[in-house]
Q: What sequence folds into this?
């Protein structure tokens, strides 16, 4: 009898020990190695598929789980060469059913799968903390769902097509005040009117408008009994009413 210590599982954090006989151990081409149950010369039942590195001869786990007629089917753990990890249901060697996926780029997905794609209801958490919760079709956001902008503290709620947000609402989330960079809503700067004459002209114009009287938006000037208001009439040539008087 041979005892093999299988690497620590990410999901269960336990050390697996499996008792096998020499006849149950198959060395495959290119370093692939299978250890488990067989039926009619095919992997069937519970088994472990590993690969021996040609460089340092270390054993790297690839799949631990259930097999049916030589294919991954049922619940299992799958490690990918790029460092990604999946645990969940399989059907005919594809992720199918419910499962969780830790991507090598930091993204995380939990939910329904079909033919190796996100498909159905699921939760996708991006590496930067943003997350989407809703419907997927063939790996893309499709249907009703909510996208949470964790950094700015906002949420998009509505309908999606081919990963694009097409109809819905954009609003502040409950966690906006705790966001890293919450969306700013600056208060407009208050300005004090220092020119009394300009302020008087403005108030008279508003008053006339409230009474419903018609008024022209063309340039105009006012004649004062003692002096001409600065910044209204620059010269005689530019003020038609003064020209008529003079």
A:
């Amino acid at each position: 009898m041979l005892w093999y210590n299988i690497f620590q599982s990410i999901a269960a954090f336990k050390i697996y020990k499996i008792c096998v006989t020499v006849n149950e151990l198959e060395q495959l081409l290119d370093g692939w190695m299978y250890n488990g149950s067989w039926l009619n010369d095919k992997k069937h039942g519970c088994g472990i598929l590993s690969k021996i590195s040609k460089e340092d001869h270390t054993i790297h786990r690839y799949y631990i789980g259930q097999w049916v007629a030589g294919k991954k089917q049922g619940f299992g753990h799958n490690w990918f060469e790029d460092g990604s990890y999946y645990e969940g249901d399989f059907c005919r060697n594809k992720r199918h059913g419910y499962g969780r996926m830790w991507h090598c780029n930091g993204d995380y997905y939990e939910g329904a799968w079909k033919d190796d794609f996100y498909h159905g209801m699921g939760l996708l958490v991006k590496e930067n903390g943003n997350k989407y919760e809703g419907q997927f079709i063939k790996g893309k956001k499709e249907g009703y769902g909510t996208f949470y902008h964790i950094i700015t503290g906002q949420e998009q709620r509505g309908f999606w097509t081919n990963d694009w947000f097409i109809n819905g609402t954009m609003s502040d989330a409950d966690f906006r005040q705790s966001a890293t960079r919450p969306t700013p809503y600056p208060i407009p700067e208050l300005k004090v009117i220092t020119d009394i004459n300009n302020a008087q002209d403005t108030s008279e114009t508003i008053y006339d408008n409230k009474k419903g009287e018609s008024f022209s938006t063309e340039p105009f000037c006012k004649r004062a009994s003692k002096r001409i208001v600065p910044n209204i009439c620059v010269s005689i040539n530019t003020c038609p009413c003064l020209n008529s008087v003079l």
Residues 200 and 206 are 10 Å apart (CA to CA).
